[in-house]
TrEMBL record:
Keywords: Cell membrane, Electron transport, Glycoprotein, Ion transport, Membrane, Oxidoreductase, Transmembrane, Transmembrane helix, Transport. Its EC number is 1.16.1.9. Pfam families: FAD_binding_8, Ferric_reduct, NAD_binding_6. It comes from Glarea lozoyensis (strain ATCC 20868 / MF5171). One of its GO terms (molecular function) is ferric-chelate reductase (NADPH) activity. The chain crosses the membrane at residues 31-53, 101-126, 138-159, 180-198, 218-237, 244-264, 270-292. This is ferric-chelate reductase (NADPH). Its main location: membrane. GO terms for cellular component: plasma membrane. Residues 302-412 form the FAD-binding FR-type domain.
Length: 681
């Protein structure tokens, strides 16, 4: 009996016939890909529909409420979308011993649970899992289902791939699915091995197979490499050294593919050639782009061999501004690219969000120095920048290589109101997005982009923007101070021309002991024009009422005083109130400084007086709710920052949408959320 099982395992492969009424092995592979294809098709339809909606809104921007659905079809679509968002965007907060754990949103978890269910059904369909006679058949089918997952895993890993193009999702979001589908593959392989081992164990045949059967040996080798691929991809391990992780990951994957190739029957080798072809295509296209963007011979404005020269400027004790003038590429706000300076950090390329617009004529990045390449960039900037004359600082630079741009976000100019929430360097993502909408208001943007994939009219239907930036120290405001002040000036000029728009910018400083709050930007009916309903509908008091009860304007959580830093953790629930500075610096320190309230206010004023500078933390839910209550159409919330800020923003949007019964007969309009978390690895 054991010898018969051994011969079947070695020779029959995919030709093995199943019992009567049991679907064949190749049939179940087709079933698996039918469901996967249906999911990709659904994402594609949603992407196309989103682009159609954007086109419709921007084509109707002269209507009173162009971002509000009118027809029965679009109202029904909005209701379904709101329900899906409320379910899928929520993330359960978890904490243990003062440590916080941030789970993925429910939508992502549900998708992967559905994927696991699909695998289990495809493996066990029409089999009796308790009948020993079905164990070998389950072993065969689970192997076939495992190997047919290979193309999907590779497609989800590529930076330029079909799924991303069809679904409108950037590779950085698909990479999450890549990691979890790889873990699902390991789960399938464990089923495959488990049923074969259980079948052999009945005859005490496991060690015999391992020692004598080359097919089994290659299968165990492939399973071992796959286990290593999964374990080494866990965040704590891969973040130890991402460059090392990438190199060993590719080598390990090629080893896994080689072992798998010799383990599976010939009729299944198509599932090996397909992912290899997808991987080679991705690498080829990326290489061609790298050559084109980085070699000066392709660009008339460049000289020498390398097209891009970058300057490195230290901003404070931990951040570097990297600037590439006259870049050979074009991009959209919200995108990032990979930057490598092999002279300073050999064989290392890191993704950085582009903090400038194409209209600026330069690529600009604000990079936090952590370790490795980013720390070397900062040390080089500290060493070189002070020695450069101001007239030459922007003319000299190191040769750098770039790859990209990458990332995708829905066109924000199709939304009635926008809320931007950024933590620290998250402003590199949100500031360009806000500036891009302002450029659309001004009319200096073109009507289409090579990255949009869909011709859309110029302009914006957006009426109101709320921009919130949370920083540790007020000195950080200088990173984007000039850009924020330019936004205020441009908006004021447009309002004077009669354009019904408004922008509010609030900067929250959490760790600065010499700071008092400012007032909300762009206040009063004179500056808001026809948008005074924002203040009325949200119950805001007049700016002249400066003696309101402070108990209603802040929620004091705690004040932490340290030797060097003063971190204010209170949450400001009303920006229009006069809020005293956080009392986290020692009184002795304040007496020695001899500073008064007026001098504190003078110190705090690091930007235009119409930009609020507050001491504390924002009440995210209140900010979103006040905007949602007066939005005349769908609004968007864009957040970029630490995981805690992102989770808080997502959950706040979900709660507000549910409380207001968005698109469920109340007239409340939808809330779209786009979230970016810190970290790439």
């Amino acid at each position: 009996m054991a010898s018969i099982a051994a011969r079947q395992h070695v020779h029959n492969g995919g030709a093995m016939a199943m019992a009567a009424g049991v679907p064949g092995l190749f049939h179940m592979q087709r079933i698996f890909w039918s469901f996967v294809g249906a999911a990709i098709a659904t994402a594609t339809i949603a992407n196309v529909l989103n682009r159609v909606i954007a086109y419709q809104r921007l084509s109707s921007k002269n209507k009173p409420s162009p971002s509000k659905p009118e027809s029965f079809f679009f109202r029904s679509h909005a209701t379904i979308t709101a329900t899906i968002r409320e379910y899928s965007n929520y993330s359960t907060p978890l904490s243990f011993r003062n440590k916080h754990f941030y789970l993925p949103p429910v939508g992502l978890i549900t998708t992967m649970v559905a994927y696991i269910v699909l695998i289990v059904v495809c493996v066990f369909y029409r089999f009796n899992v308790k009948d020993f006679r079905d164990f070998e058949d389950i072993g065969y089918r689970s192997g076939f289902i495992a190997v047919c997952q290979m193309p999907l895993i590779v497609l989800l890993a590529g930076k330029r791939n079909i799924i991303g193009f069809l679904s409108g999702m950037g590779y950085e979001r698909l990479s999450w699915f890549h990691r979890w589908t790889a873990r699902a593959l390991l789960f399938t392989v464990l089923i495959h091995m488990g049923y074969w081992f259980t079948s052999w164990d009945r005859y005490d045949y496991i060690m015999v197979k391992i020692k004598t059967d080359p097919l089994t040996q290659k299968g165990i080798a492939a399973g071992g490499v796959l286990l290593w691929l999964v374990i080494s991809s866990f965040a704590p391990i891969r973040k130890l050294s991402y460059e090392v992780f990438v190199v060993q990951h590719i080598i390990s994957w090629l080893g896994f593919v080689a072992a798998l190739y010799f383990h599976i029957p010939d009729e299944n080798k198509i599932w090996i050639w397909l992912p290899l072809a997808f991987w080679a295509f991705d690498r080829f296209v990326r290489t061609m782009y790298i050559f084109y963007y980085n070699l000066a011979i392709f660009h008339k404005t460049s000289s020498g061999l390398i097209a891009c020269k970058a300057t490195f400027e230290p901003l404070d004790e931990n951040h570097t501004r990297i600037t590439i003038p006259n870049p050979p590429i074009t991009w959209q706000a919200g995108q990032h690219l990979f930057l490598a300076c092999h002279v300073l950090a050999p064989l290392s390329a890191h993704p950085f969000t582009i903090a400038s617009l194409p209209e600026d004529g330069k690529l600009e990045f604000v990079v936090r120095a952590k370790k490795g390449a980013t720390r070397r960039f900062f040390k080089y900037a500290e060493k070189v920048w002070p020695s450069l004359p101001s007239s030459q600082a922007n003319q000299k630079g190191r040769s750098v290589f770039i790859e990209g741009p990458y990332s995708k976000i829905r066109s924000l100019r199709q939304f009635d109101s926008l809320v931007f929430i950024a933590g620290s360097t998250g402003a590199t993502f949100t500031v360009p997005l806000m500036r891009d909408v302002v450029q659309q208001w001004i009319g200096s943007k073109s009507s289409s982009s090579p990255f949009s994939g869909f011709m859309t009219p110029a302009g914006a239907v957006t009426r109101y923007i709320k921009f919130v930036w949370v920083v540790k120290r007020k000195s950080s405001v200088a990173w984007f101070g000039s850009q924020l002040e330019a936004v205020i000036r441009d908006v004021e000029s447009l309002r004077n021309e009669g354009l019904d728009i408004a922008v509010e910018i609030s900067i929250y400083v959490t760790c600065d002991d010499m700071l008092t709050s400012g007032q909300s930007s762009i206040k009063g009916g004179d500056t808001r024009g026809n948008l005074t309903e924002y203040a009325q509908a949200s119950g805001r008091e007049s700016p002249v009422d400066e003696k309101k009860n402070l108990d209603g304007s802040i929620a004091e959580i705690s004040s932490i005083s340290e030797d060097k830093d003063c971190c204010c953790t209170r949450v400001i629930t009303d920006e229009d109130a006069i809020v005293p500075p956080c009392n986290c610096a020692s009184k002795r320190r304040q007496r020695e400084s001899g500073s008064s309230t007026s001098s504190l206010q003078k110190t705090a004023r690091v930007v235009d007086s119409r930009i609020a500078v507050l001491s504390g933390r924002p009440h995210v839910s209140n900010i979103i709710r006040k905007t949602a209550e007066v939005a005349l159409g769908e609004m968007a919330v864009v957040v970029c920052g630490p995981a805690g800020l992102v989770q808080c923003t997502r959950n706040a949007a979900v709660a507000i949408s549910d409380d207001r019964a968005v698109h469920k007969g109340t007239g409340a309009q939808g809330i779209y959320v786009h979230a970016e978390t810190f970290g790439y690895a």
